[in-house]
Amino acid sequence: MPDGIAIRAATAADGDAIDAVIRAAFAGTGFGHQGEARLVRMLEADGDALTSLVAERDGAIVGHVLLSRMDVAADGAVLSAAGLAPVSVAPDHQGQGIGDALIRAALDDLRKQGVQISFVLGHASYYPRFGYSPHLAERFASPFAGPHFMAMMLDSGADWPQCGRANYAPAFGRLG
After folding, report:
1. What are 87-143's pLDDT values in tens digits?
2. Distance (Å, rounded) from C-alpha 31 to C-alpha 33?
3. Closest among 16, 15, 20 to 92, alpha carbons compared
4. What does the radius of gyration of the chain's CA atoms come to, in whole angstroms?
5. Element spanning 89, H or E
6. Residue 3, pLDDT score
7. Region 33-53: what's the mean pLDDT?
8. Total-model pTM
9. What CA–CA distances, in Å, run from 146 to 4, 79, 102, 130, 149?
10. How far apart are the C-alpha atoms of 127 and 136, rounded to whole Å?
């Protein structure tokens, strides 16, 4: 855990600070920071947020991660699943391990909830360090399929499904 950082569950009162962190983190990236902030609000309003954590330093929110419910089936069975998006760290706090700590804490929380699999659409050089694999995700039909679509079994001893489908929460489709 980075020095001076506390990670805790986000509350409704954190909404404006979370929006500010997301907007700052995604500004100038080409990823549409307005959409990311709106996505978090929609997922929470829809009741699809499974884990929402903030990182605080000196009482100020400097990071946020959200994992939301997904509709996933594999090998003829429904799987409890979550999508990681977005993870945001204020620009002046990036490169200090805060995003890493948020993701690891969020994945631990998912395991405690009994979630079986998690997906992410992101940088292929970053997310494998947490256990995400593009090879596992290739087994799932999804509108997000491609080289940046990755998945991980949250129980590292679980067998990988052979094939299935993976759909993010409805809010992702309403961003357009």
Report:
1. 999 999 999 999 999 999 999 999 999 999 999 999 999 999 999 999 999 999 999
2. 6
3. 20
4. 15
5. strand 77-89
6. 87
7. 90
8. 0.94
9. 38, 21, 25, 19, 5
10. 13
pLDDT (tens digit, 9 = 90+) per residue, 126-139? 999 999 999 999 99
The type of residue at 59 is G
Q: What is the distance between the alpha carbons of residues 124 and 142, in angstroms, rounded to a whole number?
A: 17
